[in-house]
Amino acid sequence: MIKKYEIIINMLKLLDAIVELYRKAATSLPSDIEAALKYSYVIEKEETNAKAALSVILENIKIARSTGRPLCQDTGIPVFYIKAPIGYDQLELKKVIFKATRVATNKIPLRANAVDVLTDRNSCDNTGIGFPIMYFEEIKGNKLTIDLMLKGAGCENSGQLYRLPFEELKAERDLEGVRKCALDAIYKAQGKGCPPYIIGVGIGGAKDQVTRLAKEQLLRNLKETNKYIVLSELEKRLLKDINQLGVGPLGLGGKTTAIGVKIGVNHRHPASYFVDVSVCCWANRRARLTWETKS
Amino acid sequence: MGNKKLKVESSKFMVQRTKTIKLPLTKADVLKLNVGDMVLINGLIVTGRDKLHKFLFNERPSKKQLPINLKGIILYHCGPIIKKAPDGYKVVAAGPTTSMRVEIYEHRIISEYGLGGVMGKGGMGNQTLNTLKENGCVYLHTIGGGAVYLADRVKKVVGVWKLEEFGSTEAMWIFEVKDFPAIVTMDAHGRSLHEKIEKKSYHELKRLIA
User: Fold this and answer.
1) Interchain pair B197, A194: CB under 8 A
2) Which of A13, A96, A233, B79 could serve as a FRET partner for B170 with CA atoms 20 to 30 Å apart?
3) What sign does the CA torsion over B199, B200, B205, B208 have?
């Protein structure tokens, strides 16, 4: 039996760890993303808007890390992907995340982004109905894994949902149709969501499922290869195609419109074929916390 | 080592094709700005996003009711992170927000208050482009996500308006900026870099999905 105070101490430690998770996500970028941005800087032509924009982006990343300030003033909607051991108290964890969110908002600080739809009032602490977003999954073992994504609104607003077949693009119910949708979404996004983008695509038979699946793809490391060969090939083809659109860094023209495309699939209903395209700005802020729990 | 190299590169932004501008802008100053110009802004700018635009558009406060004369200055589409310190407000992060959201309001705000420029990211539409031409105003594109880099170019928070009513993100902050970088992407001569890039990407899209 674990004594009650031990549980409380553990939860307080976890609270601190989640505040630090927020700090890490808001103030620094994962190394794969930063490396891809550095590469884009190198390949863009001298004396172009693209090169100038990327130089500021890279310097911004450095200043944010060294001064511990958020990379972007829009610290987004926090999205938590939680893998908790069987029997772990998820209700308690929810409470801790709410508390940690309030502390982090004040301490780092984050921008308060939770607005009540009915009163139009900002809660001022980044908590509210369904805010932050939390997804739970049960797993075996005694490790708690928490992935946090801070998703900015400019890029969130640039996402698109398609129902195939889609006449306007002559997109049929196949991977070629999916490719057309993803290209169309990025054409429509132009520079509004802060490219170079990372693009998540979700394919399946239910609207709610594909939108979540598409966003989940944004958690994947850029260097990771898709376990399905056809999807891995489509990801590479799409990245190449999207970079021919010429939208460029921040939409100011150039070679780098995207630095990664990731695709996920679910089984679908015979009559349904949904494709969701989730767009992420260059500041793909994600961080992971793993926590040993007592069984 | 890496640090040094990047510093040199980014200071490039400061020297190549760069014009230094001082606010407020006169009509003659505005007409001298062309699409593609990189500028370093100096002087007073104000922030404003969704709520402020809606308010100015619908309530139409008189110039006297505003805390500052907007004539010739820049309205920056930005919802900053601000920290209150004992010696005043500190700007933590202050990058641009997507300008297109205020497209339906901007034309009247430019003409009514005589703005010299609007600044944000992602560009704006035809209605704004026409208004820029009619009123002698420019659209400036700054660096999306460059929030700390840009915050460091704010030398002082001069004041704030509608803080209680709109909250910190949506309030009108008055900033004194020094060498704040931006690119002219829509000018007073009717030219838009965004329109040009969109057209080009449309042709590429058609080719790629053919």
Assistant:
1) no
2) A96
3) positive
